[in-house]
Protein 1
Amino acid sequence: MATTLTVGNARVTYRTEGSGPALVLVHGAGPGSVMWDGLLDRFTGHRTVILPDLSGSEPAEDDGSPLAIETLAEQVNAVIEDSGAGPADVVGFSLGAPTAAAAAALRPDLVRRLVPVAGLAHAGDEYVRQYMTTWLELAEAPAAFGRFATLTAHSRPFLNRIGHDAVEELHAFMRPTEGLLRQLDLVRRLDIRSLLPRITAPTLVIGASLDQTIPVENHREVFAGIRGSEYAELDTGHVAMGERPDEFVKLVRDFLDRP
């Protein structure tokens, strides 16, 4: 079931699937909540999974202005309120990690437990700045844009395991849309360090040791900034849930299902 609501200058769509306690899955930069579709059946049997499509993703509509992390966080919180499911557990991947963390900091009444995955707290890492700038400069060459995303989002062992044909198919997932370019620009500017101490929800930060998109030191910095949080690290590239789905789902479910 899909629902659309207006949040500030944006029209945000979200899907709801399954039944049980609410679980919000926040997407990273890219086409939107479809990135979670491969894992949905792992959660919908005992969770009401809420899948928002935030500004910059293809289903969302807004005025095209530069994005702010607080704007995306406000959209997540508006979806939780509109669904009537709060307080909800919130998992956020990549850009979705600081988005989910900001949502928890700004509206602690709406977030029960928090799981930031392969995210960052601020744009001070020169590697990340250079990475995002390089990716943005490839926008005029869509094939190279997608190939660069695939090459750096996944670890070398994973790419070799799935083989050439499967790797070639992955390139099409990232296309240089206007919205995605705005999301990548946000990664170069964001800073949630002042928000992290305000998070009161029990938190599990998940890092990826082989991450070439947002190196693991950034994941560990998010963990260090959230008082009382826990940390787990998977031996994967950036898209941890794609490379080791069983381990990822077990980490998330075990944490969220605690009494």
Note: The longest strand covers residues 10-18.
Protein 2
Amino acid sequence: MTYSSNTPVSLDTLIDHVRTGLQQSPALDRLTRSIDVSAHLSDLSDALVGHFVDEARREGATWAQIGERLGVTRQAVQKRFLPDDSTRPGFWDRATPALREVISAAREEARTRRKTYLGTEHLLLAILTLPDDPATAALATCGAPAETLRAAINGRIGVPSGDPLPDDTPFTRLAITALQHAHREALRATAPATTPSHLLLGLITTGDGLAHDVLTALGIAYEPLRAALQTPPQP
């Protein structure tokens, strides 16, 4: 199956976008902008394919079937789409200070519970440490205030006890997936940076993990949460 016409973006559209405001500027300025636009389109392209790879996996497609559609081996498609590195520059370059604070707090949540891994539940607990963040407000709007979520997670993994572990703990694969999905959510929203709100959505779109299970058990669904995050707070 091919798809070569009626695409939402044409080359002429991109050329016009690059030229806008730079018609009288040196050609090298337009070249620089075209490089920036191309890099952004590459990010969007990866996110677009990744979105539908996830969808195909949820519908039961095997990695071999997905690889066949992409024209690569099962091993190659798994290497591309199975998360194995949360520190890639594309993520950290776009992370806001608030998101970096969340990830730092998630490490502390894991350490104080003496876990040898950093899971999605620790990322969700860390989001709840920001009471004034839009992510926490949106959760409350959707019927899951911070204290309810915290109690639900503590009921699953227990409360901190004893001395914290001395070292940072590695991300689980699902936690890395959530970070990658957060990056994708930021691109989908055409946001200039990745925030705790995007991470919260990513914790749901992973489709698995303790954070996902707790959120869905409390009735939190992707579309209502996304709508709540897009609604300006009331004065």
Note: The chain has a mean pLDDT of 87.
